[in-house]
Amino acid sequence: MKKFDSRSADNIVVNRRNHTIFLSGAVLLALGVITIGVTFIPTTRPVSWWITLPLIVLGAVISGRRSTPAGIRRDDRGVLLSPTGHFLFAAELLLPPLALIPVALLIPAKGGFPHSWLQRLQRLITMFVGSLVFWHVVDMTNGLMDETNVYRTMLAVLCAMAVHLMTEALFVSTQLSSSNGDRISRSVMWRPRSASRDVWELAIGAVAALLAFQHPVFVILAVPLCCSASEHIRLQGQSRLALTDARTGLLNPRGFDEVAAHEWERADGEENRISIILVDLDLLRDVNNTHGHRAGDAVISAVGRLLTASSRSSDAVARLGGEEFAILLPEADTEVATLVAERLRETIAASRIATPVGPLSVTVSCGVATRVGTETVEAMFDRADTALYQAKNAGRNRVAVACRESDDTRLGRRDNAA
Fold first, then answer.
1. CATH code, domain carrying 379
2. Residue 133's CB: how many other CB atoms inside 10 A?
3. Domain boundary among 179, 207, 239
4. Contact present, 62 and 233 (Cβ < 8 Å)
5. pLDDT of 404-418, one tens digit each?
6. Which of 20, 238, 261, 317 is deepest in the core (most CB within 10 A)?
C-alpha cells in the first residue's frame, strides 16, 4: 500500500489538461462540421422542420426523464443505456442542418461538466456527419419512397447508420484514450457485439423517419414509435429498482455485485483491467451527533451525486451502506483509478454541502485496488478495504493504493477509523 504522492498529483494536472484540450478540440471540430453541413447538406425536407423539431426534442426529453439509469447497462460496455439514440438518428434524416443544433444542445445530458458538454458535442458531430452522408447518397430527383427509389433510400439509411456508429466510436474511444492512455483500438466501442446494440437503437429511429418520408402525416406515428422503445427501457429499469439505493439513487450492494459479476465475466474472456475504489466519509458520526441525522442524510445524498459527477461514464457507483461507497472502474489500471479517486476526493473536500442546518464541509478517504491476474471480486475488494483503512488511520482525507499481491485477509476495522 502507498499513499497518493506528488507524481500522482502531477498526473492529475496532466489528466485535467488533456480533458481541456479534448473539449477545446471537440468544440473546434463541431464548428467545422456545422460549417460543412450548412454548406453541403440540402435543406429541403418532406416534413416541415417546425413540426418535427419540437416533436423530436419533446419526445427525447420525456423518454430520457422517464427512464431510470439504475442498473441499465449496455451488455458489452457496462455504461448507461441512453434512451434517446433513436430520436437523434431520426433527427439526422428529418431535420435540416441548422435544426440539428438545438436537438444536440436541448436534450439533457448525464453527468457534470465537462462530460455533459462532451456528450452534446458528440451528438452534434455524429448527427451532422450522418445527415451529410444520407443526403448525398439518396436520389433527390424522385420521391424518396417511390418504388424505383426506395432501395437507394435504404442504402442511404444504412450508410448513414454506419458512419454515425463509426464517428461515435471514434469520438468516445479517443476521449477514453486521452484519459487512460490506451490505444484507441482497445476500446470496447469497436467490438461487434457492442456496435450491434447501437444498430438496433438507430434502426428504430430509421423506421420512424422512413414512415415520415412515406407521407408527412406518418410523422404522428414516429414519436410514439420511438417513445415505445424508451418505455421498454423504463419498464426494464423499474424491474431493477431492487438494485438501487433509495436515498442516493446509486446501485446498492446487490446491484453492485451484479455489475461486478458481469464485468468479471467479460474481463475473463478479454483480459481487461478492472479497478475498484472504496470511499468512506470521514467522521460522519460527528456530523450526526452535532447536527442531527437529517444533516447526515443530506451529506450522504450530496456525496453520492458528487461521486457520480466525478467518475467516468463507464464506471459503476454504489452505496454499500451507511457512509460507505464503491466505484467499479472497467478497463482502468492503477494509475487511472488513482487519478479518479484523487479527483473525487478533491471535489468533495472543496464542496460546501447544503444541509438543513446550513452548508457543511466533509472529506472522504479512498482505497484503490486493481485486479491481479485471475483474482476474484472478493479478494480485490478485501485489498481495497485494507487500503481504505490504511488511508483513514494515516490521517483521513487521502487516497491509499493497495499492494499488488492478493490478500485474502481483511483488515479489522478500528473504532478510531470510523
1. 3.30.70.270
2. 21
3. 239
4. no
5. 764 444 444 434 444
6. 317
Give CA–CA dist 314/75, Å, rounded: 12
Residues 143 and 288 both lie in one domain? no
Q: Which residues pair with 327 in a beta bridge?
A: 277, 317
Say how many C-beta atoms besides its own lie within 10 A of residue 212's C-beta.
Answer: 25
Q: Is residue 394 one of the residues assigned to a domain?
A: yes
Locus of grid cell 467499479: 328
Q: What is residue 186's DSSP assignment?
A: G
Same domain? 235 vs 288: no
Most confident of 74-83, 185-194, 220-229: 220-229
> Residue 61 and residue 207: Cα distance in Å, rounded?
20
**248 assigned to some structural domain:** no
Could you identify the residue written with the cell 423517419? 209
Give the residue among 60, 54, 52 at the shortest CA–CA distance from 86: 60
Q: What angle do CA 88, 90, 93 make, to 5 degrees?
A: 115
A 10 A CB-CB count for 166 gives 16
Is residue 189 predicted with pLDDT exceeding 60?
no
Which pTM was predicted?
0.54
Residues involved in catalysis: 323
Q: Looking at residue 413, what DSSP letter applies?
A: P
Gap between the terminal Cα atoms of the chain: 20
Count the residues in the chain. Answer: 418
Residues 406 and 321 in one domain: yes
Domain hosting residue 353, numbered range: 253-417
